[in-house]
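My main concern about presentation is that the manuscript never shows what a single data entry looks like. Each protein is reduced to its one-letter sequence and a matching series of backbone shape codes. For the editor and my fellow referees, an illustration may be useful. For illustration, here is how one protein appears when written out as sequence plus structure tokens:
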Amino acid sequence: MTTLQIRANNTRSDFESLAHAFLFQAAYNLDTSARIGLDPHLSTPRIQKVRRAQESTFDAPRQSYDADLVSHYLMGVAAEMPLLEYLSYYHIAEHYFDKVFNADLVDQVRVSITDPSFSVRRSKDIEKIIKTIDRAHRQVREDGVNEQRALELVLEKFVDVDRLISDLNAWDGNIVQYYKTYGVPFAGASKLDLQPSDGGEVKKAIARRIYKVRNALVHAKEGSLPKYAPFAHDVELAQEIPLMRFAAEQIIIKNGTSL
């Protein structure tokens, strides 16, 4: 069993938050996962070469993080099954789907009512706003939040593509070219060019690829839709994990709070 000791000169009530911050810092830099509990589980390093592997260069965390997100991240780092690892990182992005989707709807309405062409005296202008809101609410009632659009908004808000490419290159110098050359057959996902001239379009493309892989993992209905076959597609799925993991890491970090 490994124990973590935190000391402070003054009485504090946030030791658990500090512990989660440390666990994320350790998992991020050392690719080693542990959880708070009676039976800690430590995993075998796999992406350790991306980070500073020497403990002598390991710093204390400077941010605290959402405990739920850290738990999903630790699950992903500890997972030995590619399916569980991928979905653990996906859940980190999913955590913000409702928030960003609703914020986007508010922005759409705000843009409409502040446009100089809008007039509160014209019924058709008011009706247009009502239709925008009604269309969004109807979609949520029927299908839940539009997950691919929500994922795109999460990436737009929290993920820097240049940093994502840098992390991918550090992990494997050929992986960016791999995404550009190959799709994901078991998911029906297209090739992904991470370096087009339009930064907005690349996040849409990332969202499409991630979301199609996710759907293939969670949907097992008989039919024509692409789906994941356990073990048979694990090699292909393993290639998609770095893209999801490094995006999830940025989401956690961007939502951290300075200590």
Notes: The first helix runs from residue 15 to 30.
